[in-house]
Design goal:
30% helix; eight-stranded parallel sheet; alpha/beta; Arginase, Chain A; 372 residues; globular
Length: 372
């Protein structure tokens, strides 16, 4: 009998110890994983917990921005859209999964936990309503049709009335996808803002003449991730105050390619210029060159060294660190940035620590902050 009583008491104690007691809810900060207005209990709606449900960038609200005119659509100021396209690459494919990878890398980010330790500000909760519009519906079988679909996606999403009264139309941050997708974004920004200065973070110049890179095969092949800036220049989408930053990849013809690049309106800041100028020097150079113009920022993740971003199609050694890139991007705030993208993320080549998608997600956050 005594043995039975002892066992009963021991079992009861163990069962009691396993009961979960939640701390009281703070009026300022809430438990990680719960929405601010939720009560942490076992009957909690799981859709309010981070790392559950459908993945949006930084756990932002999803808006069906591509719905028809007969469908009510809430207003927004900055739209995140994915461009799952990678059939314009000249090396490793896989960037069609970039939008999903970047969203996966952003799942630890949430608006209520985004107060900067550097500035003390939370840009997700200031003037702009930022939403995730999902991915553009792109065919994987025909580049020409896919890019027309992406053109239309940008027209629809950027053509709606913005939420903030100071801006007539919303602006877009695109998650790529290979760099060809930036062409559609520049066409969209031109429709609303006119020609822009592009600050192009990349290890490659991407202004190759289509006749040199792919065009010798067909006109179709000449539209790719290495020629899109040439095409944008031909279409009058760019100002001659544009810049490349982080360039280090070799060119096929040192005289023609670089002369052609200047003819497309670009000035080059090379990767190793950082060693001479420092990060502040790079920031000042970029801001001075585009001063007084509207700016589009395009970040090819291969601007980073493969040690920091291995998951990309055309990796080049000798690049910048993630910290250096984030510092430079942070320093560009205050300009009139009217659109941005982060592209060439191919998650299949990432490591188990998700180094590249984490970097790309943080880059996208900084890009969101640069939009005034």
């Amino acid at each position: 009998m005594l043995l039975y009583q002892f066992c009963f008491i021991a079992f009861t104690c163990v069962a009691f110890c396993r009961e979960v007691t939640f701390p009281p809810v703070s009026g300022v900060q809430h438990a990680l994983g719960y929405a601010p207005d939720s009560t942490p209990n076992l009957s909690l709606d799981l859709s309010t917990i981070l790392f559950s449900g459908l993945a949006t960038y930084a756990n932002l609200p999803y808006v069906h921005c591509l719905a028809g005119d007969d469908h009510p659509i809430e207003k927004y100021d900055i739209a995140i859209i994915g461009a799952p396209f990678d059939t314009g690459v000249t090396a490793r494919p896989g960037a069609r999964f970039g939008p999903g990878g970047i969203r996966q890398g952003s799942r630890r980010i949430a608006a209520q936990f985004s107060w900067s330790v550097y500035t003390g500000r939370n840009y997700f909760q200031e003037w702009a309503k930022v939403v995730d519009c999902g991915d553009a519906p792109l065919t994987v079988l025909d580049n020409t049709i896919a890019l027309k679909q992406l053109d239309k996606t940008h027209r629809v999403i950027s053509g709606r009335k913005a939420n903030a009264t100071d801006y007539a139309v919303p602006r877009i941050i695109t998650l790529g996808g290979d760099h060809t997708t930036t062409l559609s974004a520049l066409r969209s920004t031109y429709d609303h803002w006119g020609a822009v200065s592009v600050i192009h973070f990349d290890s490659h110049i991407d202004t190759w003449d289509p006749a040199v890179l792919g065009g010798g095969i067909s006109h179709y092949a000449g539209v790719n991730h290495g020629t899109f800036l040439h095409i944008a220049h031909e279409e009058g989408l760019l100002l001659n105050t544009s810049l490349h930053a982080g360039i280090r990849a070799p060119v096929s013809n040192p005289k023609y390619d670089l002369q052609h690049d200047r003819a497309c309106g670009f000035h080059i800041v090379r990767a190793r210029d950082l060693d001479k100028l420092g990060m502040q020097g790079i920031i000042e150079k970029l801001k001075h060159h585009v001063a007084g113009t509207k700016v589009y920022i395009s970040v090819d993740i291969d601007v980073l060294d493969p040690a920091f971003a291995p998951a990309t199609g055309t990796a080049e050694v000798g690049g910048w660190t993630t910290r250096e890139l984030l510092t430079i991007l942070d320093g560009l705030s205050g300009m009139e940035v009217i659109g941005a993208d982060v592209v060439e993320v191919a998650p299949i080549y990432d490591n188990p620590g998700e180094t590249t998608v984490l970097a790309a997600a943080e880059v996208c956050t900084i890009l969101t902050l640069t939009l005034p």
